[in-house]
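task queued by scheduler; priority normal; single chain, no ligands, no partner chains; default sampling; output format set to structure tokens
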Amino acid sequence: MSQFMVEFTLAEMDDAFMAKIPSQRAKINEMMEQGRILSYSLSADRAKLWCIVNGDSELEVLETISEFPLINYMTPDISELMFNNVVSLRVPMFSLN
């Protein structure tokens, strides 16, 4: 399985866009729990959005992002990654003493 960076250019946020944000967040959370999406980031100006998607091909990534409630407001640009380094949170070991 490969990882893909998807950079989205977002359309102007109208009322219909805003109404779909809760369902978009729910779908993203579901996909993250399933391991299909590893990260999801929005630029401060709300014009760009990035996510790291697991998939076997660009077609599989397209199928994944087609499930987004806001996909009609997004223009995706997909790039396969050679690697993706992330900092994981480390929980300190605790003692049972």
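post-processing summary
- The chain has a mean pLDDT of 93.
- The helical segments are 15-34, 58-65.
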